[in-house]
Design brief:
248 residues, alpha/beta, four-stranded mixed beta sheet, elongated
């Protein structure tokens, strides 16, 4: 169940809406609020003892009305399993993409994001299971290079290889990456390798060793080290989490 933003937070949520949300949660439904919809969840008692957020302009009021909630005004969204909350309108889209990813995997979430012309994911302020892929439009000088690299993630690419393909120097390429993407070429390449590993862990039964080779990590040891550093959990745990998470 998704609870949209309230038109006026100065008015208490309708009792029938609060009752419906409370009953749905008691029946096992997953409840997600968008923006000021968190006030409905608060009135239903679903935020007590849970971390929650809403639009920063109303976070203090949410905390004052529901002191048992742990209100965090600085995050995009929170995920408590059966109760989720999002900040403003853009963060609400991030939360919805997060839900799609949980239920249907990275490939489907990325497809939806492309239709919306937005990146598939922004971190919600907690340890997330998805890295942020960078979108560069087709007319940008880096677009062809990024596409070329993504088709060769299983190969031992270096910054020199990438610079040669882009017909530029490694130093100039580094400046371009930092200016456009906000990362060094190596940091971006690692992010893409981790994303490829995520997709393989979700969608195939390949061994960790095979996933390491296909994502360009080389060995299972390297994959486990880099994957846990970037994602926050080992690849084995990641696979179990997403294989076990069906639609709620």
């Amino acid at each position: 169940m998704i609870v949209p933003a309230c038109a006026d937070i100065d008015e208490p949520p309708p009792p029938e809406l609060v009752g419906a949300v409370r009953a749905a949660h008691a029946a096992g439904a997953r409840i997600a609020s968008l923006c000021t919809g968190a006030f409905v969840l608060g009135a239903a008692g679903l935020l007590d003892g849970r971390r929650a957020t809403t639009h920063w302009a109303h976070a203090a009021e949410l905390g004052a009305r529901h002191p048992l909630a742990v209100v965090d005004p600085d995050v995009l969204y929170t995920d408590n399993g059966s109760v989720l909350t999002a900040a403003g309108k853009a963060a609400a889209v991030d939360l919805c993409l997060h839900l799609i990813h949980l239920d249907h995997g990275a490939t489907t979430a990325n497809s939806v994001a492309r239709r919306l012309v937005m990146p598939p994911h922004r971190p919600g302020g907690q340890a997330q299971f998805v890295s942020t892929p960078v979108q560069v439009t087709g007319d940008h000088t880096l677009a062809q290079l990024l596409a070329w690299v993504r088709q060769r993630l299983d190969q031992p690419l270096t910054v020199t290889d990438m610079a040669r393909k882009a017909n530029t120097s490694p130093r100039h390429l580094g400046r371009q990456f930092r200016s456009v993407i906000g990362q060094t070429p190596i940091q971006w390449l690692l992010t893409e390798r981790v994303r490829r590993a995520q997709e393989l862990l979700e969608g195939t039964d390949q061994s960790i060793e095979a996933v390491a080779r296909a994502s360009g990590m080389g060995t299972a040891t390297t994959l486990r080290r880099q994957f846990k550093r970037v994602v926050g959990v080992p690849p084995d745990s990641y696979r179990r989490s997403f294989r076990g998470a069906g639609p709620a």
